[in-house]
Amino acid sequence: MHELIASIDENRRLQGFLTVEGVLALRARGVTVIDPFSTLVSNRAELAAGVFLWPNVTIMVGEAGSVAVGSSTVLHSGTRVVAQAGSVSIGSNCDIGQEGGFTFIADNEGDVIAVGDNARLNGGGSIAKDAQLGDGAQVLGPIRVQQCRLGGGGSYREPDPDKRGGVLKGSGIARNLDIPTGMVVQAFGLFGDAPLRHQRDFHPGAQTAKS
Predict the structure, then answer these.
(1) Closest among 84, 77, 96 to 38, alpha carbons compared
(2) Which positions ≥6 away from 110 have C-beta within 8 Å?
(3) 122 phi and psi, to 5 degrees?
(4) pLDDT single digits (tens) 156-181
(5) Average pLDDT, whole number, for the chain?
(6) Does the domain formed by 2-202 have CATH 1.20.1250.20?
(7) Rounded-to-integer distance, Cα 47 and Cα 43, Å
(8) Where are the domains of the chain?
(9) Is the CB of residue 188 less than 8 Å from the CB of residue 171?
């Protein structure tokens, strides 16, 4: 068993990942790791106290890249964060990767992916290149997001939909879109062809500032 672990650790070191023992040691910094054998964490990653890593999470950071994950954020199984030369920052209290994982790719110099606090990114989607997602923003479904800006606001728990962060929902490709606070684009294909709608249209029984 010792030789097996040593072999696994050597392969991890060659790719810039923490050893199995190094992943386990994250708990001393307040990070919860359910399965250190299936969880790959770069030795360059910055994980705040309270981060929760489910099995089969990968965080890869190149020599010119950076990744930071805020406190109490949960990365569900199948989530991949890759920053070979760009940067990925994920805020606090985010829920990432339920129902199929989620992928972040910032491979080129100058790529910046920034996600605010209380965001929810689920359903097998991905973000590549540049993207700015404000507090409470949501990406729901297998959506390929590139160079989009989602306005900040409350989380999905905010009772007034007009005050929630911007939302993309459905499936397909979303590129160069600006979704203000309280708004949503739902599409199944090209999001650029879909209308911008108020989130209250999807929650007719909710109390809003206008009611």
Answers:
(1) 77
(2) 86
(3) -135, 165
(4) 999 999 999 999 999 999 999 999 99
(5) 95
(6) no
(7) 10
(8) 2-202
(9) yes
